[in-house]
Design a protein that fits this description.
Blueprint (H helix, E strand, L loop, with lengths): L1 H9 L6 H19 L3 H27 L12 H11 L14 E5 L4 H12 L3 E6 L7 H13 L3 E4 L5 H10 L4 E4 L13 H21 L5 E7 L23 H20 L3 E6 L2 E2 L8 H10 L3 E6 L7 E2 L2 E2 H14 L16 E6 L5 E2 H12 L4 E6 L14 H7 L7 H16 L5 H7 L1
Parallel strand pairs: 1-2, 1-4, 2-3, 4-5, 5-6, 6-11, 7-10, 8-13
Antiparallel strand pairs: 9-12
Helix pairs in contact: 2-3, 5-6, 5-11, 7-8, 8-9, 10-12, 12-14
Bound molecules: uridine-5'-diphosphate-glucuronic acid.
C-alpha cells in the first residue's frame, strides 16, 4: 500500500502508465495461476513474471534518473521540431551589412527582460527560440501575454524548465544555437526569505543544468547571462565597478547570483564556454515585473492603497540606479554580438575562451521617495506613503553603477532618465490593465 502512495507522489500527472503495467502484471499472474497448475509450467511463468518485474524496475529507475516528471512534457514530435527550427532561423542573409544572423536560445523568454530581448533580436533578423516555465512567482497571465506578443512576431516559446536536461539536449539536437541568452531565474531580493529553495532550484541547479547542456552541445554556444547588481552587497565603494569585491552578499538572491558568476567561470575554465555575465541594475519599464517596487507602487497609488517606503539608517533615503529596459536590451544585444566563440567540442576544451562581466546600470541613482514623487506626477494621484525603517530583509541602501567597461567594450550608453522611463511605463500600465477612472486625462497628460 505504501509503495503505491509513494508512486502517486512520484508520478502525479501520469498515474496510469507505470501503475497499469504493474497491476496488469499482477492480474495476469492470477489468471495464469488458475489456468496452468502444473509445476513445470508454473516455473516457466514464474520466470516470465520475474523478467517482467525486472523490466518494470529498470524502466522505473530510468524514469527516476531522467527526471520522471518531465516524461509527460508537452514537447517533442515532428511538428514541434519544425516550429523550433523555423523560430531559430535567422532572417537576414549572411551578406547583409550586420553579418549573418544569430540563432539564440533565450531562457526566461516570457519574463520581463527575456521578452524584450527576444523581440529586439527578432526585429533585427536573428533567430530566437524561447524557453520559460511560466511559474507563478507573479501572475502567469502576464507571462502568457508576453508569449503571445512574441508569437505574433514569430518567436516560439517552449513551455519547459531549464532543469529538464532532456529537453535542453533535444533543443540543441534540433538547432545548432550560436548563442544562449540566459535570463531565466528566480528574481527578487526580499522573496528569498520566504522561499529560499526556489533560488537554489532556478539560479543554481537550473544554471548548472543549462551549462551542462551548453558544454555538451556541438557546436557549443556562447553564453550571455543575467547576473545582478546585488552581488556588490555590502561593498560601499561607489560607483560600483567590476573590480570591486563581491564577496559580501546581503541576501540569498545575491549569493546565488554571485555563485552563478563562479559556476560560469568554472565551465569557462574547464570546457571552454564563452561566458558574459551582465550585472543588471534594477531594470524597469513596460511589460515589467509586478513584484518590483515601481510596479506595485503604481498599482497601489491608482487603487488608493498605501505604499510602504523603506528608509535607511539615520533617516537616509534608499537609492537605486534604476535602468530602463531599452538601454538594458541594447547592452544585452551588444554583449551577444561581441561574445567570442566557445572553444570546446565533445565536452572538451580546445583553447581559452572569453570570460567577461559588465555592469549594465544607468549611472544616476535616484532615491525611493523621488521615484514615488515621479509616479505621483505621472499618475496625478498623491500616494499614501507609509515610511518605515528598512527591515533586515536583504535590501542594500544604494546601488550605483560604473559603466566604463561596458561603454568601452559594448558601446553601452544608457539614455533614459527615470522620469522619461516611468512615463513610458505608466502609459503601458494603463493601456495593459486599463483604468477607467480618468484614463483619458492620463492619456493626454502622458
Ligand atoms: O539590481 C538588481 O540586481 C535587482 O533589482 C531589483 O531589486 P531591487 O533593487 O530591490 O528593486 P525593487 O524591489 O523594485 O526595490 C527598489 C527599491 O524600493 C524599495 N522598496 C521596495 C519595496 C517596498 O515595499 N518599499 C520600498 O521602499 C527597496 O528597498 C529598494 O530600495 C530586482 O527585483 C532584482 O531582481 C534585481 O536583481
Amino acid at each position: 500500500m505504501r509503495v503505491v502512495d509513494e508512486e502517486e507522489e512520484l508520478y502525479p500527472s501520469t498515474p496510469g502508465k507505470v501503475k497499469v503495467e504493474r497491476s496488469g502484471a499482477a492480474a495476469m499472474s492470477g489468471q495464469l495461476h488458475r489456468c496452468f497448475a502444473s509445476t513445470g509450467t508454473m516455473f516457466l511463468w514464474a520466470l516470465l513474471l520475474v523478467a517482467m518485474t525486472a523490466t518494470y524496475l529498470s524502466f522505473r529507475s530510468l524514469a527516476d534518473t531522467s527526471s520522471s516528471r518531465y516524461f509527460t512534457a508537452s514537447w517533442g514530435g515532428l511538428h514541434w521540431e519544425r516550429q523550433i527550427r523555423a523560430s531559430a532561423s535567422p532572417r537576414r542573409p549572411p551578406w547583409s551589412a550586420e553579418g549573418a544572423g544569430l540563432s539564440v536560445l533565450v531562457t526566461g523568454a516570457a519574463g520581463f527582460v527575456g521578452a524584450h530581448c527576444s523581440l529586439a533580436l527578432r526585429k533585427r533578423g536573428d533567430g530566437v527560440v524561447g524557453i520559460d516555465n511560466f511559474n507563478s512567482y507573479y501572475d502567469p497571465s502576464l507571462k502568457k501575454a508576453r508569449r503571445a506578443l512574441l508569437g505574433s512576431h514569430g518567436v516560439f516559446v517552449v513551455d519547459g524548465d531549464i532543469n529538464d536536461g532532456r529537453l535542453l539536449a533535444k533543443l540543441f539536437d534540433v538547432v545548432p544555437f550560436t548563442h544562449v541568452l540566459h535570463l531565466a531565474a528566480q528574481a527578487g531580493v526580499r522573496y528569498a526569505m520566504e522561499n529560499p529553495s526556489s533560488y537554489v532550484h532556478s539560479n543554481i541547479a537550473g544554471l548548472v543544468s543549462l551549462l551542462e547542456a551548453c558544454k555538451d552541445a556541438d557546436p557549443q554556444p556562447a553564453i550571455v547571462w543575467a547576473s545582478s547588481s546585488s552581488v556588490y552587497g555590502l561593498n560601499d565603494l561607489v560607483p560600483f565597478s567590476e573590480a570591486h569585491r563581491t564577496d559580501l552578499p546581503a541576501s540569498l538572491y545575491a549569493a546565488t547570483k554571485k555563485a552563478g558568476e563562479e559556476i560560469t567561470h568554472t565551465y569557462n575554465h574547464i570546457y571552454g564556454l564563452s561566458v558574459t555575465g551582465l550585472r543588471f541594475f534594477t531594470v524597469y519599464g513596460p511589460w515589467g515585473r509586478p513584484d518590483m517596487a515601481y510596479f506595485f507602487f503604481t498599482r497601489n497609488i491608482l487603487q488608493g492603497k498605501p505604499i510602504t517606503v523603506y528608509r535607511g539608517r539615520d533617516h537616509v533615503d534608499l537609492a537605486r540606479d534604476f535602468t530602463y529596459i531599452d538601454d538594458v536590451v541594447r547592452g544585452s544585444l551588444a554583449a551577444l554580438d561581441t561574445a567570442g566563440r566557445s572553444t570546446g567540442t565533445g565536452g572538451k576544451k580546445r583553447g581559452p575562451a572569453p570570460y567577461r562581466i559588465f555592469n549594465l546600470g544607468n549611472t544616476s541613482p535616484v532615491t525611493v521617495p523621488t521615484l514615488v514623487a515621479i509616479l505621483e506626477r505621472c499618475l496625478m494621484v498623491k500616494a499614501k506613503k507609509h515610511v518605515v525603517e528598512m527591515p533586515g530583509n536583504g535590501d542594500v541602501p544604494f546601488t550605483h553603477a560604473n559603466i566604463s567597461l561596458a561603454r568601452e567594450e559594448l558601446g553601452y550608453k544608457p539614455t533614459t532618465s527615470l522620469e522619461m522611463g516611468l512615463k513610458k511605463f505608466v502609459r503601458w500600465y494603463l493601456s495593459y490593465y486599463g483604468y477607467n477612472r480618468g484614463t483619458h486625462a492620463f492619456r493626454n497628460h502622458l
